[in-house]
Amino acid sequence: MMELRGLPVANSLTEAFKLRINQLKLGGITPKLSVIRIGNNEDDISYERSIIKKFSSLDAVAEVTGLPYDVRQETIEAVIKKMNNDNNVHGILLFRPFPEHLSYEKIKSVINGDKDVDCMSQTNMARLFSGEKNGYPPCTAQAVMEILDYYKVDLAGKKAVIVGRSLVVGKPLGILLLEKNATVTICHSKTKNLPEECRRADILIACAGSANMITREFTNPSQIVIDVGINVEEGRLCGDVKYDDVADYVQAITPVPGGVGTVTTIELLKHTIISAERYNAVVRI
Q1: Is 165 annotated among the ligand-binding residues?
Q2: Which end of the chain has the lower number of beta carbons within 10 A, N or C?
Q3: Residues 180-216: pLDDT tens digits?
Q4: Residue ranges of the chain whose pLDDT lies below 70
Q5: Is 200 annotated as a binding residue?
Q6: Cα within 13 Å of Cα(38), Cβ side
Q7: Could you tell me the fold of the domain covering 139-261?
Protein backbone atom coordinates (compact mmCIF):
# COMPACT_ATOMS: atom_id res chain seq x y z
CA MET A 1 0.00 0.00 0.00
CA MET A 2 1.19 3.50 -0.86
CA GLU A 3 0.12 6.35 1.39
CA LEU A 4 -0.67 9.50 -0.56
CA ARG A 5 0.26 12.17 1.95
CA GLY A 6 -0.65 15.79 1.36
CA LEU A 7 2.46 17.47 2.78
CA PRO A 8 4.79 16.74 -0.17
CA VAL A 9 2.09 18.10 -2.50
CA ALA A 10 1.67 21.23 -0.41
CA ASN A 11 5.44 21.78 -0.18
CA SER A 12 5.83 21.46 -3.94
CA LEU A 13 3.12 24.04 -4.57
CA THR A 14 4.47 26.36 -1.88
CA GLU A 15 7.86 26.68 -3.57
CA ALA A 16 6.23 27.84 -6.79
CA PHE A 17 3.99 30.31 -4.95
CA LYS A 18 6.95 31.99 -3.24
CA LEU A 19 8.21 33.20 -6.61
CA ARG A 20 4.81 34.53 -7.64
CA ILE A 21 4.27 36.37 -4.35
CA ASN A 22 7.72 37.94 -4.63
CA GLN A 23 6.86 39.13 -8.13
CA LEU A 24 3.66 40.73 -6.84
CA LYS A 25 5.52 42.41 -4.00
CA LEU A 26 7.96 43.98 -6.45
CA GLY A 27 4.94 45.87 -7.74
CA GLY A 28 3.82 46.83 -4.24
CA ILE A 29 1.06 44.22 -4.13
CA THR A 30 0.43 41.83 -1.23
CA PRO A 31 -2.07 39.01 -1.89
CA LYS A 32 -4.87 39.38 0.64
CA LEU A 33 -7.69 37.06 1.64
CA SER A 34 -10.64 38.32 3.67
CA VAL A 35 -12.35 35.63 5.73
CA ILE A 36 -15.83 36.02 7.18
CA ARG A 37 -16.69 33.89 10.20
CA ILE A 38 -20.17 33.90 11.69
CA GLY A 39 -20.28 32.85 15.35
CA ASN A 40 -17.52 31.03 17.20
CA ASN A 41 -17.54 27.50 15.86
CA GLU A 42 -14.34 25.79 17.05
CA ASP A 43 -13.79 24.07 13.69
CA ASP A 44 -14.01 27.42 11.89
CA ILE A 45 -11.61 29.04 14.35
CA SER A 46 -9.15 26.17 13.95
CA TYR A 47 -9.33 26.45 10.16
CA GLU A 48 -8.85 30.22 10.17
CA ARG A 49 -5.74 29.80 12.32
CA SER A 50 -4.26 27.40 9.79
CA ILE A 51 -5.10 29.83 6.97
CA ILE A 52 -3.48 32.76 8.78
CA LYS A 53 -0.39 30.68 9.57
CA LYS A 54 0.08 29.50 6.00
CA PHE A 55 -0.53 32.92 4.42
CA SER A 56 1.77 34.75 6.84
CA SER A 57 4.55 32.19 6.31
CA LEU A 58 4.65 33.27 2.66
CA ASP A 59 4.19 37.02 3.24
CA ALA A 60 0.56 37.00 2.14
CA VAL A 61 -2.27 38.35 4.30
CA ALA A 62 -5.35 36.60 5.66
CA GLU A 63 -7.67 38.88 7.61
CA VAL A 64 -10.66 37.58 9.58
CA THR A 65 -13.91 39.46 10.14
CA GLY A 66 -15.84 37.82 12.96
CA LEU A 67 -19.59 38.41 13.06
CA PRO A 68 -22.05 37.39 15.80
CA TYR A 69 -24.18 34.30 15.25
CA ASP A 70 -27.33 36.45 15.15
CA VAL A 71 -25.92 38.83 12.55
CA ARG A 72 -28.56 40.47 10.36
CA GLN A 73 -28.79 39.68 6.66
CA GLU A 74 -28.18 43.29 5.62
CA THR A 75 -25.10 43.47 7.84
CA ILE A 76 -23.32 40.52 6.28
CA GLU A 77 -24.26 41.70 2.80
CA ALA A 78 -22.78 45.12 3.58
CA VAL A 79 -19.54 43.50 4.80
CA ILE A 80 -19.24 41.49 1.59
CA LYS A 81 -19.94 44.52 -0.60
CA LYS A 82 -17.23 46.48 1.20
CA MET A 83 -14.75 43.68 0.48
CA ASN A 84 -15.93 43.52 -3.14
CA ASN A 85 -15.05 47.21 -3.54
CA ASP A 86 -11.70 47.06 -1.74
CA ASN A 87 -8.92 46.83 -4.33
CA ASN A 88 -6.53 45.54 -1.68
CA VAL A 89 -8.71 42.45 -1.10
CA HIS A 90 -8.12 39.74 -3.69
CA GLY A 91 -10.06 36.84 -2.22
CA ILE A 92 -13.18 36.43 -0.09
CA LEU A 93 -14.00 33.30 1.91
CA LEU A 94 -17.14 32.70 3.96
CA PHE A 95 -17.25 29.81 6.39
CA ARG A 96 -20.24 27.56 5.89
CA PRO A 97 -22.86 26.45 6.82
CA PHE A 98 -24.64 29.66 7.77
CA PRO A 99 -27.15 30.11 10.59
CA GLU A 100 -30.67 29.24 9.42
CA HIS A 101 -31.95 32.81 9.66
CA LEU A 102 -29.60 33.93 6.88
CA SER A 103 -30.38 33.51 3.18
CA TYR A 104 -27.62 31.50 1.55
CA GLU A 105 -28.99 32.30 -1.90
CA LYS A 106 -28.83 36.06 -1.31
CA ILE A 107 -25.36 35.93 0.20
CA LYS A 108 -23.84 33.94 -2.64
CA SER A 109 -25.37 36.36 -5.14
CA VAL A 110 -23.65 39.32 -3.44
CA ILE A 111 -20.06 38.05 -3.48
CA ASN A 112 -17.97 39.19 -6.44
CA GLY A 113 -17.26 36.10 -8.56
CA ASP A 114 -13.76 37.35 -9.37
CA LYS A 115 -12.91 37.36 -5.65
CA ASP A 116 -14.85 34.22 -4.77
CA VAL A 117 -11.84 31.96 -4.24
CA ASP A 118 -13.79 28.92 -2.99
CA CYS A 119 -16.53 28.76 -5.66
CA MET A 120 -19.49 29.87 -3.58
CA SER A 121 -21.06 32.25 -6.08
CA GLN A 122 -23.32 31.32 -8.97
CA THR A 123 -20.83 33.01 -11.29
CA ASN A 124 -18.01 30.64 -10.42
CA MET A 125 -20.25 27.58 -10.40
CA ALA A 126 -21.37 28.51 -13.92
CA ARG A 127 -17.76 28.97 -15.00
CA LEU A 128 -16.81 25.58 -13.57
CA PHE A 129 -19.67 23.63 -15.12
CA SER A 130 -19.32 25.35 -18.50
CA GLY A 131 -15.60 24.60 -18.66
CA GLU A 132 -14.37 28.19 -18.44
CA LYS A 133 -10.87 28.54 -17.02
CA ASN A 134 -11.21 31.97 -15.43
CA GLY A 135 -13.07 30.81 -12.33
CA TYR A 136 -12.03 29.16 -9.08
CA PRO A 137 -13.09 25.55 -8.38
CA PRO A 138 -13.86 24.68 -4.76
CA CYS A 139 -10.53 24.40 -2.93
CA THR A 140 -11.17 20.90 -1.57
CA ALA A 141 -12.13 19.51 -4.97
CA GLN A 142 -9.05 21.16 -6.49
CA ALA A 143 -6.89 19.72 -3.71
CA VAL A 144 -7.95 16.20 -4.72
CA MET A 145 -6.85 16.92 -8.29
CA GLU A 146 -3.51 18.31 -7.10
CA ILE A 147 -2.84 15.11 -5.15
CA LEU A 148 -3.70 12.88 -8.11
CA ASP A 149 -1.48 14.99 -10.36
CA TYR A 150 1.46 15.05 -7.93
CA TYR A 151 1.43 11.27 -7.56
CA LYS A 152 1.12 10.89 -11.34
CA VAL A 153 -2.21 9.10 -11.35
CA ASP A 154 -3.30 8.81 -14.98
CA LEU A 155 -7.04 9.52 -15.07
CA ALA A 156 -7.71 9.07 -18.79
CA GLY A 157 -10.15 6.23 -19.31
CA LYS A 158 -10.21 5.32 -15.62
CA LYS A 159 -13.44 4.72 -13.73
CA ALA A 160 -13.76 7.23 -10.89
CA VAL A 161 -16.52 6.78 -8.33
CA ILE A 162 -17.39 9.70 -6.05
CA VAL A 163 -19.42 9.01 -2.92
CA GLY A 164 -21.08 12.35 -2.14
CA ARG A 165 -22.95 14.84 -4.32
CA SER A 166 -22.52 18.20 -2.60
CA LEU A 167 -21.82 21.41 -4.49
CA VAL A 168 -18.78 21.90 -2.26
CA VAL A 169 -16.93 18.72 -3.31
CA GLY A 170 -18.81 15.91 -5.07
CA LYS A 171 -20.38 17.57 -8.10
CA PRO A 172 -17.50 20.00 -8.83
CA LEU A 173 -14.99 17.17 -8.45
CA GLY A 174 -16.92 15.17 -11.02
CA ILE A 175 -16.48 18.01 -13.52
CA LEU A 176 -12.75 18.29 -12.81
CA LEU A 177 -12.30 14.53 -13.29
CA LEU A 178 -14.25 14.61 -16.54
CA GLU A 179 -11.88 17.31 -17.81
CA LYS A 180 -9.08 14.76 -17.32
CA ASN A 181 -11.03 12.18 -19.33
CA ALA A 182 -12.02 9.96 -16.42
CA THR A 183 -15.33 8.11 -16.55
CA VAL A 184 -17.22 9.44 -13.56
CA THR A 185 -20.00 7.97 -11.43
CA ILE A 186 -21.44 10.04 -8.57
CA CYS A 187 -23.05 8.00 -5.81
CA HIS A 188 -25.05 9.08 -2.77
CA SER A 189 -27.18 7.81 0.11
CA LYS A 190 -29.92 6.60 -2.26
CA THR A 191 -27.60 4.70 -4.60
CA LYS A 192 -28.55 1.03 -4.86
CA ASN A 193 -25.81 -1.56 -4.26
CA LEU A 194 -23.36 1.15 -3.16
CA PRO A 195 -20.55 -1.25 -2.14
CA GLU A 196 -20.73 -2.93 -5.54
CA GLU A 197 -20.60 0.42 -7.38
CA CYS A 198 -17.56 1.43 -5.34
CA ARG A 199 -15.73 -1.86 -5.93
CA ARG A 200 -15.84 -1.22 -9.67
CA ALA A 201 -13.82 1.96 -9.33
CA ASP A 202 -10.20 2.45 -10.29
CA ILE A 203 -10.29 5.60 -8.16
CA LEU A 204 -12.70 5.83 -5.23
CA ILE A 205 -13.30 9.25 -3.67
CA ALA A 206 -15.20 9.47 -0.39
CA CYS A 207 -16.76 12.85 0.39
CA ALA A 208 -20.12 11.99 1.97
CA GLY A 209 -19.36 13.41 5.42
CA SER A 210 -20.08 10.10 7.15
CA ALA A 211 -17.38 8.78 9.47
CA ASN A 212 -15.82 5.43 8.51
CA MET A 213 -18.61 4.52 6.07
CA ILE A 214 -16.23 3.12 3.43
CA THR A 215 -15.02 -0.29 4.60
CA ARG A 216 -13.10 -3.04 2.82
CA GLU A 217 -16.24 -4.37 1.11
CA PHE A 218 -16.40 -1.10 -0.89
CA THR A 219 -12.87 -1.49 -2.30
CA ASN A 220 -10.67 -3.65 -4.50
CA PRO A 221 -6.92 -4.40 -4.30
CA SER A 222 -5.94 -2.30 -7.33
CA GLN A 223 -7.88 0.76 -6.20
CA ILE A 224 -6.70 4.27 -5.33
CA VAL A 225 -8.76 5.68 -2.45
CA ILE A 226 -9.03 9.42 -1.77
CA ASP A 227 -10.63 10.28 1.58
CA VAL A 228 -12.01 13.81 1.68
CA GLY A 229 -14.03 13.38 4.86
CA ILE A 230 -13.14 15.11 8.13
CA ASN A 231 -15.12 13.79 11.09
CA VAL A 232 -14.69 13.43 14.82
CA GLU A 233 -15.57 10.06 16.31
CA GLU A 234 -14.90 9.16 19.93
CA GLY A 235 -12.76 12.27 20.26
CA ARG A 236 -10.51 11.36 17.32
CA LEU A 237 -10.25 12.83 13.85
CA CYS A 238 -11.20 10.39 11.11
CA GLY A 239 -12.29 10.36 7.50
CA ASP A 240 -15.15 8.79 5.58
CA VAL A 241 -12.95 5.73 5.01
CA LYS A 242 -12.28 3.21 7.76
CA TYR A 243 -8.55 3.51 7.31
CA ASP A 244 -7.34 0.52 9.33
CA ASP A 245 -9.78 -1.75 7.52
CA VAL A 246 -8.90 -0.54 4.03
CA ALA A 247 -5.29 0.69 3.99
CA ASP A 248 -3.51 -2.68 3.77
CA TYR A 249 -5.92 -3.91 1.07
CA VAL A 250 -5.90 -1.17 -1.60
CA GLN A 251 -3.11 0.07 -3.87
CA ALA A 252 -2.97 3.60 -2.43
CA ILE A 253 -4.88 5.79 0.01
CA THR A 254 -4.85 9.28 1.51
CA PRO A 255 -4.76 9.45 5.33
CA VAL A 256 -6.94 11.60 7.60
CA PRO A 257 -5.45 13.76 8.95
CA GLY A 258 -2.48 14.43 6.67
CA GLY A 259 -4.12 14.00 3.28
CA VAL A 260 -6.51 16.21 1.32
CA GLY A 261 -6.97 18.77 4.09
CA THR A 262 -3.26 19.59 4.04
CA VAL A 263 -3.54 20.70 0.42
CA THR A 264 -6.86 22.56 0.69
CA THR A 265 -5.37 25.60 2.46
CA ILE A 266 -2.66 25.80 -0.20
CA GLU A 267 -5.34 25.88 -2.89
CA LEU A 268 -6.95 28.81 -1.10
CA LEU A 269 -3.62 30.65 -1.25
CA LYS A 270 -3.20 29.70 -4.91
CA HIS A 271 -6.57 31.17 -5.85
CA THR A 272 -5.83 34.35 -3.90
CA ILE A 273 -2.51 34.76 -5.72
CA ILE A 274 -4.18 34.25 -9.11
CA SER A 275 -6.80 36.84 -8.21
CA ALA A 276 -4.12 39.33 -7.16
CA GLU A 277 -2.31 38.76 -10.46
CA ARG A 278 -5.49 39.27 -12.46
CA TYR A 279 -6.61 42.34 -10.56
CA ASN A 280 -3.23 43.98 -11.00
CA ALA A 281 -2.39 42.70 -14.48
CA VAL A 282 0.77 40.97 -13.26
CA VAL A 283 2.46 38.57 -15.66
CA ARG A 284 3.59 35.36 -14.00
CA ILE A 285 7.30 34.70 -13.99
Answers
A1: yes
A2: C
A3: 999 999 999 899 999 999 999 999 999 999 999 999 9
A4: 281-285
A5: no
A6: 22
A7: Rossmann fold (3.40.50)
